[in-house]
Amino acid sequence: MAGNYLPFLWHNWGMKWWIMGAVALLLIVIGSWFIVNRPDKKMVSPVVKERPLDKYTIENLGKREYKSQIFIDDEVSPGVFNFHFDSDGKKVTGLAHVPKKCPCPVIVQFRGYVERDVYQPGMGTKRTAEVFAKNGFISLAPDGLGYGESDNPSPDVFEERFQTYTTALNLLAGIGVWDKAGKIGIWGHSNGGQIALTALEVSQKKYPTVLWAPVSKPFPYSILYYTDEAEDRGKALRKKLAKFEEDYDVELYSLTNYLDRIKAPLLIQQGMADEAVPKKWTDELVKQVKADYVVYPGADHNLQPAWNLAVMQDVQFFRKSLAGNK
């Protein structure tokens, strides 16, 4: 009897456990569905971090439209006028040198870095502008945001830098409307040379361009190199740069990665005794772009004592490159 009872007991208990397991599994499935689909459950969207400086990559700058309207203001001395224009909703002022007889080709001049507390309109460009005007060229030298009577730039140190490019490109676009013949050249010195190179990469326009000792190293090394001149030796800037690099790829903002976009004829002039922009930087640049390259033994960052010779090289270059509009 016992032998017959054990298989029966085993069979029923096994069946019972199987049913209990199935019910438990069903309850788990139903409970999970209710948790996932309950009415009071709030949908949580992933947090997307804003990246407002993406629009300033060289690729993205090349995709947008630039425009401005140029206004000639009061005459400050014979043939010299204040002017202003709009750049992305901000007022930018500058100094214009205008020959007596025009229409004339226009040379846009981008100066090197100057501390705001000592800046005066025309600083870094006035002497060359006078020579250009005497030789039949209009010179337009923008002060830049934060300088002269211009509006202030972005409080973000990197956006402020990138706004120098949009300012330059808006001005060039405005001249293109103003000067229907399209005879526009660019002159840039030091940091202004860096602005000029970037504007040429973004626009891919064939503006004949003269560069005096241009800053041509990759970003951000191009600014870190000069931080030893700051009171804190660049400590604050390095902290901001570390934060910038958490969100952005610096390679997308570096002019050295886009030199193949430059289509313009170039004249590059460099002093061998330049302590602000080492000659080897410019040597490396000239290997990567097609340019006429003139080196002056013993000349400093401002091409002294060869300044007169250098500026006449500029005049000859612009006459040849912008011929037919004088």
Describe this structure in words.
By secondary structure, this protein is α/β, with parallel strands linked by helices. The protein has two domains: 44 residues; 266 residues, 3-Layer(aba) Sandwich (Rossmann fold), CATH 3.40.50. Helix content is 39%, strand content 17%. The chain is built from nine helices and nine strands. Strands 1-2-3-5-4-6-7-8-9 form a nine-stranded mixed β-sheet, sandwiched between helices. Helix 4 packs across helix 5. The longest helix has 36 residues. The N terminus is likely disordered.
Fold blueprint:
Blueprint: H1 2-37, H2 58-61, E1 70-77, E2 80-87, E3 90-97, E4 106-110, H3 126-134, E5 138-142, H4 157-178, E6 184-189, H5 191-203, E7 209-212, H6 221-224, H7 235-247, E8 266-271, H8 279-288, E9 292-296, H9 307-321
Helix pairs in contact: 4-5
Strand order of the largest sheet: 1-2-3-5-4-6-7-8-9
**Separation of the first and last Cα atoms:** 126 Å
Rg, Cα atoms, Å = 32 Å
Tell me what portion of residues adopts beta-strand conformation.
15-25%
Q: Give the overall form.
A: globular
Biggest β-sheet, characterized?
9 strands, mixed
The appropriate CATH architecture of the largest domain is 3-Layer(aba) Sandwich
Overall pLDDT, averaged?
A: 87
The CATH class of the largest domain: Alpha Beta
| Low-pLDDT regions | 1-11
Number of domains: 2
CATH fold name of the largest domain: Rossmann fold
